[in-house]
UniProtKB/TrEMBL annotation:
Region named Disordered: 1-38
PANTHER family associated with the record: DEHYDROGENASE/REDUCTASE SDR FAMILY MEMBER 12 (PTHR44656), DEHYDROGENASE_REDUCTASE SDR FAMILY MEMBER 12 (PTHR44656:SF7)
Pfam families: adh_short
Protein source organism: Gopherus agassizii
Name of the molecule in the record: Dehydrogenase/reductase 12
Gene3D superfamilies to which the protein is assigned, alphabetical: NAD(P)-binding Rossmann-like Domain (3.40.50.720)
Species lineage: Eukaryota, Metazoa, Chordata, Craniata, Vertebrata
Top-level taxon: Eukaryota
Composition bias, Polar residues: 19-29
């Protein structure tokens, strides 16, 4: 699926309280939901909306201490996913957008961006395409970075026809190929200017799959690819007025604590949904770290909510069928991306924040224990820098 599109827990992320004895009979999350009343009814709604269940015991090691540790980890994972999903039912759906949009300032998007240059990865469908459409309507020069040439050309034709904007350029690039990303960025810097970079492309592969370079594909696309493209284009962005970098992340990252010990998921039972969520957490950490270093560029990450995109329909058909009447439109999902990319109001926000419906929101759920240390965050940057340099052309 495309990054920035809807993320939902994998199978079993929210076990029914009756099935939670493996965690802890006295755990607070279990106790909080094992009763009748409105909260119980909301739980039932949440469970019925889920696509399925997670593989059990993926962190399990035989032995008494390991069992206790597993139960604690399982209880915390269950708590995070429960709180996150119930929050999603309230905030990430179409009704959540309708409620939030009552407080939007329409004038924020009444902007003419003629003369400004925007790069959008993964722009041939979903959130990326909807973002491109809105920016094209306002006169921006667009660089659409897509993997599939045929779909990219179709998207360009549609955007050009609907907006009349002729300043739309296609670049065919696989964001899981680090060497090609470096080559593309170096060439782009010699031919174009760039005011805004929108990192939207991504994937969620549910089996551990390696690229031709031997990289786990989700990590290569969502994290390393984003890191290389952004790093390579920072000097170009810094030369322009009001430069911005936006990462279309996902609220799914809220259920993950940064884990720098196994960036390519080599030592765990592979779960594509959780790997995707971990990648999204990594993107948010990158946004925060870049903002600290590059003071003259405005960085932001965002969650588009649960949107009805082609990726959701194909990757999660069961979830789509159960939730399709509650999903946001692609335009609603893209609204905050557009706002962050063109609005003067967005540039006044502190750099490095995480946004949902045009407002900065916390990057952590209450009591979820997902905070990482400065050392862990620095280790992520070091690992990505070291790996990226291996693919940089001499």
């Amino acid at each position: 699926m495309g990054c920035g599109d809807t993320w939902v827990p994998a199978r079993g992320s929210l076990p029914h309280p009756a099935h939670s004895t493996q965690l802890s009979a006295t755990s607070a999350p279990t106790a909080a939901l094992q009763h009748t009343g409105p909260r119980r009814q909301l739980w039932v709604r949440a469970r019925r909306s889920l696509p399925g269940r997670l593989p059990a015991g993926r962190l399990f090691n035989p032995g008494g201490g390991a069992v206790l540790t597993q139960r604690r980890r399982g209880a915390m994972s269950w708590y995070r996913n429960t709180v996150w999903f119930l929050t999603g039912l309230r905030e990430y759906t179409r009704s959540g957008y309708d409620s939030a949009s009552k407080h939007f300032v329409p004038a924020d998007l009444e902007v003419n961006v003629t003369g400004r240059s925007f790069m959008i990865t993964g722009a041939n469908s979903g959130i990326g395409k909807a973002t491109a459409m809105e920016i094209a309507k306002r006169g921006g020069t667009l660089h659409l970075v897509c993997r599939n040439k045929e779909r990219a050309e179709e998207a360009k034709r549609e955007i050009t026809t609907e907006t009349g904007n002729q300043n739309i350029f296609l670049h065919i690039l696989d964001m899981s190929n680090p060497k090609r990303i470096w080559e593309f960025a170096e060439k782009f810097k010699t031919e174009h200017k760039l005011n805004v970079l929108i990192n939207n492309a991504g994937c969620m592969v549910n089996r551990r799959e390696l690229t031709e370079d031997g990289l786990e594909k989700n990590f290569a696309t969502n994290t390393l690819g984003t890191y290389i493209l952004t790093t390579a284009l920072l000097p170009l962005l810094a030369n322009e007025d009001d430069p911005r970098v936006i990462i279309v992340s996902s609220g799914g990252m809220l259920v993950q604590k940064l884990d720098v010990s196994d960036l390519q998921s080599e030592n765990v039972t592979f779960d594509g949904t959780m790997v995707y969520a971990q990648n999204k957490r990594q993107q948010v950490v990158l946004t925060e770290q870049w903002a600290k270093v590059h003071k003259n560029i405005h960085f932001s990450a965002m969650h588009p909510g649960w949107a009805d995109t082609p990726a959701v329909r194909s990757a999660m058909p069961e979830f789509y069928e159960k939730m399709k009447n509650k999903l946001r439109t692609e335009a609603q999902g893209a609204d905050t991306v557009v706002w962050l990319a063109i609005s003067p109001a967005a540039a006044k926000q502190t750099s490095g924040l995480f946004f949902q419906d045009r407002h900065p929101v916390s990057t952590h759920l209450l009591l979820a224990r997902t905070y990482s240390s400065p050392e862990e965050e620095e280790k992520l940057i070091e690992a990505l820098e070291e790996l990226s340099q291996k693919f940089k052309p001499a």
